[in-house]
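Hi team,

Filling in the usual template for the complex we talked about on Friday. All components are listed, including any nucleic acid strands or ligand strings, so the model treats them as one assembly.

SUBMITTER: L.P.
PURPOSE: interface mapping
COMPONENTS: two
RESIDUES: 654
SEQUENCES:
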Amino acid sequence: MTAIVNQSVVSVIVEHDKCIADKGCRICIDVCPTDILALDASDGKVRMVYDECWYCLPCQHDCPTGAIRVEIPYLLR
Amino acid sequence: MDTRNIEVDILVIGGGTAGPLAAIKARQKAPHLKVLLLDKANVKRAGAIAEGMDSVNNAVIPGFATPEQYVKEITIANDGIVNQATINAYATRSYDMIKELDGWGVKFEKDETGDYAVKKVHHLGSYVLPMPEGYDVKKVIFRQLRKAGVEISNRLVTTRLLVGADGRIAGAMALDSRSGEFVVIRAKAVVLCTGAAGRLGLPSSGYLFGTYENPTNAGDGYSMAYHAGAELSGLECFQINPLIKDYNGPACAYVTGPFGGYTVNAKGERFIKSDYWSGQMILEFWRELEGGNGPVFLKLDHLADETVTKIENVLHVTERPTRGLFHEGRGVDYRKDMVEMHISEIGLCGGHSASGVWVDENARTTVPGLYAAGDLCNVAHNYMLGAFVFGKIAGEDAVDYVAGKEHAAVDAAQIEAERARIFAPLLRAEGIPPTQVEYKLRRMVNDYLQPPKVTRKMEIGLRRFAEIREDLARIKASNPHELMRAAEVAAILDCAELAASASLFRKESRWGLYHYRTDHEARNDAEWFVFVEVRKGADGRPECFTRPVPPYIYPIGEAERDAYDSLRVEAPATLAA
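RESULT (copied from the run log):
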């Protein structure tokens, strides 16, 4: 639930050049169990918006362009 | 706050493991019925097996085990407090379910002759069937859902069940966590498959979502069943798991054991005879950690390089595939390093321990038309395969139940009260963020409920929980996502109160660490060879009572019953000089 504002260390890292959410892709947003991914209004790409990641990997595995890399949340590393 | 109304014959809540099977089996038996499967996440990746599973922990396969052996082992492992009829209902269907899943495309390990490659991990028998390619389970099941014509709705957070004036189940109410709509679903039967209460204790990392269970499984089902008047069972029998420290996920000894891995203390010595997760094993684990012999490790560094590679190819691709990433981050290589373990915060989970919504061998709860299956129901040690089997049982029985029935009549006030409760945090101008209330609640669960259980601590815990209940009326949510979290906090609070109440009620110790009470240290079969049940009393508060253990189908001999009490490796007698 903790909203992420101006935070650079998130566990779901989206490579903006590869992300095709601006072309209508919603796969990672759809499969995330905790519903923490959303469109960034500024560029139409995906961003992690809630610090509620289970580091489970459906977003990374289901991304059609390989744009997502999941890291272990900082508190657990 | 728009309202969406839906009417179906059978509503299945929870799209993880048990739920999809309930929906598929209901449609296969009665293709004319309208069956809706909903999930608070997305059915494609919902539940405990979102990333697949690395092994079946309870396969009952001819040639390796019989239903009688299995039922007896689970009875002994749970200190006798089981309803053998439910465990037998699973055991007698276990092999058929494996074959059906195999036919659908789920991959189980087989030997060179094509036989299932069953391994021994339990204390007595052999029931573990590895799934080295088990990452596709959800995709296989999803194809079957499509084929069976099950309707699916995602991102619906069910918050309360609807109960008809005649006491029958009448449907459920949900929040759409994307649109913020209020959804009222009328159904003739409801199958609850909402999984464990996985967000009860706070992980030692402090990260709210760093849980063993999929954190979507916040305990919603326990709360919903309780408020619908259903009987819950064994909530004092906590789930506590031996896990990779900090990562807080399974190591996993069930996978590594058959390859030669085992658990050791700081001296590198074995101290438990079996890595199978029983309360007694966890107690020995805890004693080792607390008694000056910790840390405790999973030892694999003695294994051949190619064996370790095989283990990595299971553990780092299925169930919790970020295990490899975690080890890499710390520079841990199984070939030369041991894996530091700890025991987890508490949860409630029938699949691993023996707690949950009371069901009979037909998956029926005590509320007519309401079923429960999977980790939510109290069928001991039922795991993934048991969830599939009880889902199937529930779905098929629900078809018979709804035959010739109309939807139960519902009082509109019930719906309006729930709408007001769920949306209140959004309407408030200001208040406490749901995360803060959740953090405090779960920290109190750690402080006062984590075993060993102390009467005075649990009494204080109940006082803190009552104060937090007052705080629910001060939670502020800014959007439907936060509203979902606020609803979950209320469910977690119900689970905490129910777990504390049941724990105080059972005045003895049982199930190793799961219910280890310092004020009542011994097991007392004379007075407590019974289930402890809890339901909502007339005053709206938890009411505890006992339920006799039904006569056994397979009696347990005196010589067998204590097998799980002697899990500690005794020091070998030293020879006289």
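MY TAKE: The radius of gyration of chain A is 11 Å. The helical segments of chain A are 27-31, 58-62.

Thanks, L.
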